[in-house]
Amino acid sequence: MTIEEHYNAIAPRLTNWLVATGSSYHEACDLVQNAFLKIWKMRDDLRDDDSAVSGLAYTIARNLRKNLWRDDSKMVLVEEIPETVPAPQPESTLGESDAAYLRKRLSAAFGKLPPVLREAYTLFQVAELPVKEIARQTGVTENLVKVRIFRAKQKLREILADLRDV
User: Most-buried pick from 111, 128, 139, 148 (CB within 10 A)?
Assistant: First the structure.
């Protein structure tokens, strides 16, 4: 496969995974572009293996995001510091569509998951990577990946239990 064919196959799933794990859509698109730019530069050294390119793309994008977040956390602009802290707004579902409410609840539930569970679950469900590839990327055993996915599902069920009774 050419790099372009790899990009067409991997980029949508990689973008979805980045968004599901905390990036904005525009940031995710930039990260995917930068990851494939790095892959393009090392194209002569790559094996012609679809899973190798896929794993490399996810690893590069994840590392680029870590670097971006690390750099952003160190930067504080004076304009961003509020003079007064606004009072917290009560959560209300009035006027929101059901889909928006569910999206908000799901996002909050994902935020409560430990990072290792969230990463394993989103790589499996959102990015649709096989367990073997997730284990390779994260540096853990396949069994541990399965356990993390199971625990993430369990935790999400607990957090969102009230939605099942509706």
Answer: 148
